[in-house]
Amino acid sequence: MAANIAIGIAKFIGASISGSSAMLSEGIHSVVDSTNEVLLLYGLHKSETSPDEQHPLGYGQELYFWSLIVAVLIFALGGGLSVYEGLTSMKVQAPAHDPTLSYIVLGASALFEGIALFVSVREFRKNLPQNSDSFWRTLRNSKDPSSFIVIFEDCAALIGLAIAFVGVYMSQLHHNSIYDSIASIVIGILLTVVAIVLVIETKGLLIGESASPETRESIKQIVQSDDAVTRMEAPITLHFGPQDIMLAMNIEFQDGLSSDEIEAATRRIERKIRESHTEVKRIFLEAASVV
Fold first, then answer.
1. Distance CA 5, CA 11 (A)
2. What pTM value is reported for the model?
3. Among 173, 160, 194, which Cα is nearest to 25's?
4. Rounded CA gap, 218 and 213, in Å?
5. Which residue, among 20, 28, 14, 4, has the nearest Cα to 192 in the 3D structure?
6. pLDDT per position as a tens digit, 247-290
7. Of the candidates 88, 80, 29, 70, which has an alpha carbon nearest to the alpha carbon of residue 189?
8. What CATH topology corresponds to 2-207?
9. Where are the domains of the chain?
10. Domain 213-287 belongs to what topology?
11. Do residues 93 and 276 touch, judged by C-beta distance below 8 A?
């Protein structure tokens, strides 16, 4: 966040001196990124609030709410203002100013954004299971917006810097700022596309998504492997946070078991599930006749 703020200030200074519309759009991009990181940190903090009487299942979905707000901000502030700036600057067909400072700022920004992306990807990979799918598939299925939003933003930032560089260079080459304005519009479109993707992702998490198919299948195998179980219904799972899953399931036990034996079997199954899946925080098992 500190790096984004510093880069944003440098971009605004570069834009004011060079008159580059694309540089100004990139400065707006950095401001939006910094604001988003503040909101994600706040969402992470709120999501760790302990359950209370009003919210007995906790506040884990706070992170999903603020992630949706982040996506909306990228769309409105990042995409909207960049497109507006590009369209406005098109009306003024003035020769571009000396772009040297713009090149310096863009190069330094690309270096820092590249380092940020490398760190984000490395941290994300640390939490990947050994038998996970490809990186991008796993990122697409991630339940942790604080991870995938940062990676998406860093990727968009690097692409935006490349677009800004092309706009500044073409304006210098042809002595016409129209190319710089076009670059600003393209950056706005890029941010709009990223925002739409993030809205789709966070919307699914906010309205409730089940655990991954691998997790559900593992839970089924744990339950079915218990000698006291004869049949079971499909597990009902729901993410209340990246590492907070609720599980509900109907289980049919063998005939002739006493209430104490059923209670012992239930506790045994719960223990095995928690040992294998630490993210399952709440388990509701019901002994019922399964049709």
1. 10
2. 0.79
3. 160
4. 8
5. 28
6. 999 999 998 888 899 999 999 999 999 999 999 999 999 887 65
7. 80
8. Alpha-lytic protease prodomain-like (1.20.1510)
9. 2-207, 213-287
10. Alpha-Beta Plaits (3.30.70)
11. no
